[in-house]
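Page header: ASSEMBLY MODEL / two components / 587 residues total.
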Amino acid sequence: MITFDSVSKRYPDGTVALDEVSLECRTGQITVFVGTSGGGKTTALRTINRMVDPTGGRVLIDGADVKASKPAELRRGIGYVIQQAGLFPHRTILDNIATVPYLLGASKREARPKALELMERVGLDPAMAGRYPFQLSGGQQQRVGVARALAADPPIMLMDEPFSAVDPVVRAELQAEFLRLQDELHKTIVFVTHDIDEAIKLGDKIAVFRTGGQLVQFDTPEDLLAAPADDFVADFIGRDRGIRRLSFVKAGDVPLRPAPVLPVTSNVSAVGEDWSLVVDAANAPLGWVRSAGLGDAEGTLADARLEPLGHTFSIATDSARAALDAAILSPSGLAVAVDPEGAVVGVAEQRDIAGALAEPEDVR
Amino acid sequence: MIAASGEPLVRWYWIGDHGSQIWGYTQTHMRVALLPVLFGLVISLPIGILCSRFNKAYPAVLATANTIYAIPSLALFMIFVQYTGLNESTVMIPLTLYSLSVLIPNVVDGLASVSDPVRQAATAMGFGPLRRLLQVELPIAVPIVIAGVRIAAVSSISLVAVGELIGQGGLGYYIVNGNQINFPTEIIVATVLIVLLALLTDTILVILQRLLTPWARARGRTA
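Prediction written out in full:
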């Protein structure tokens, strides 16, 4: 556990980078520091490995003041990943990854096999081991950066906007793999970002910093979205915080209505003025239909032109956010819920889905 | 003066007759030219490192090195001959001083080519200042430092010939002597050899740089 005990950083020119910040980063969890630029989030991160020494208060790792350790030794026990990766251009990928083991006195023979293993772990082709950083893409360099931070198996990892410099597609990939990796490794991670979406996606707890180095709110993503501490936090989270909150509601909690289903074998004459959901023999949805769209078609629904579904949502795996999206895209305004086998279990209107938000808030 | 005598430009037999003498002067020439570059590098590394740490001192250091470079070599040879006499060091000391005006800025630029994220990452992973300098910053500076060494070496090889005015010019001996006895072969052989030595040295340095810094190839000639 990393403890900030009223940590302050004032520079000689009077600038306050951190103002009496107190918080705890739990062991094995991802704590995200988020905020506007100049909010002190990076400064706060750097007090942990003594890249910055506070002018007031203490930073403790498992109860021990970091000031008691020599900076270089302290840092070798803490993984560090930065935005531009900061790989050593003159060392191969393998030796870049093995940097900290080398510093700790490991021989090449000891460190390299482990570095190779780490390459696979972070999704890099081991054939790249002998290449130099300039031969890699930005996303690949960032993976090397993560592998390098993990090389000495430190219990703590500090990550300073590690995914900010890559394009959105690669960023999403790196974020997903980062979460998968954390599921296996359970490191104590402090992650700095200016991107609230990233914070919500990755954080177990989120600390919001404001210009002047003040900690405004320290909460779980759900609570942060449900109850922003003040206007600054509400503004920072943005206008779509309602929709974001739906990400934390399981689709299974959305109240469903019976679906107006029609088997695909029915005659078109069975279609009424209201929307019907056409299903196959296994009760899987095929599309929407209503009399207004059929004209003077004859025969069964198998030959009729159906309105596309948009997409369905799974009550087992999706969030209420996916359900809302399905409702918005559906021609009937009804989101189609399916079970793991793909069979229709019911439908939901937009307001049913929004209603699912009220429940967690009532519980609080 | 050359054409007037009716003497041919090159008498090839002379080269064959004087093979071992030419080789001797060539060796002297290279020693007198390249040792100063080596000394210059040894002096420039600490000065350059200090300049990149204390930026305020750098303009003054650079101005001093450039001022020395502006002093005619002949004048410097004349000054040092009073203290060091008629020997090789009288030529090597000025050449060493000249090399500083190229090497110091290249050491400083080389160290400046280390990007902030690299420096930060090194510190954050637990490199102390000295280890960071030796294992990260200096190796990254190597391509730019070698670029400076190439310029210093070529100009030094060319400048040594002037040292013949105090009798310490390596192959420059043939240029002065050929003029005095009106024998163009000596002048041409010495000049061609000096140019070839300069080109050869430069090529060896380029190969050395490629071998030492395979990682720098995609970053352009010097950086």
